[in-house]
Design brief:
This protein is mainly α. Helices cover 77% and strands 0% of the residues. The protein contains seven helices and no strands. Helix 1 packs antiparallel against helix 4.
Length: 184
């Protein structure tokens, strides 16, 4: 019976790995695309020019709401901000594939900060425009991805905790990790 439980645990681990790879792919591909674009002087300049108005609006909103200029907290150029965002996204995705909660938190941070800045559909008053539709879809897609990461993070101790010594016992107690995973 222990061998059967170990097989279930291995199957669950393989399924989870495939799921994490599929989930993280969108962030990893996006990160690599941003970094590649920034490495090209012409494409990088065009990208920076296209995001500058949204970054400027975010800075102005922060200043208006707090009375404090954002550049004093984050004294970076747009290029540096985009590079840091792409690195956070890409490293987070790679760590998430490796089943790291730090990776999930990095992707959550990236999504939480970037989504309202880059997809503020509520500022576009032409609800029939393609720009409004794309920003609204991207905003809610990112909100759903954030929710999925929140769910993953919330359920993680129930699964990963079964491999550690603690409330669930040790991984070698003969019960098999799959038998300790609790889904309520």
């Amino acid at each position: 019976a222990e061998k059967e439980g170990d097989g279930e645990c291995a199957e669950m681990g393989a399924t989870a790995l495939v799921g994490r790879c599929m989930f993280a792919f969108v962030f990893l591909a996006s990160s690599l695309n941003k970094l590649q674009t920034l490495s090209d002087p012409i494409a990088g300049a065009a990208t920076l020019a296209s995001i500058a108005p949204r970054l400027g609006a975010a800075r102005a909103l922060f200043r208006d709401k707090t009375g404090f200029p954002l550049w004093m907290l984050l004294p970076f150029t747009d290029r540096t901000l985009l590079t840091l965002a792409a690195l956070t996204e890409g490293i987070g995705a790679a760590l998430f594939i490796a089943d790291s909660s730090l990776g999930a938190k990095m992707i959550m941070l990236f999504t939480l900060v970037v989504t309202p800045v880059m997809h503020p559909f509520w500022l576009n008053h032409d609800e029939g425009s393609a720009g409004y539709q794309v920003d609204m879809i991207m905003f809610f897609k990112n909100a759903a991805l954030f929710g999925a990461l929140l769910f993953w993070h919330g359920t993680r101790p129930a699964v990963v905790g079964s491999r550690r010594v603690g409330a669930h016992g040790s991984a070698n107690d003969g019960a098999g990790a799959a038998s300790r995973v609790k889904w309520e």
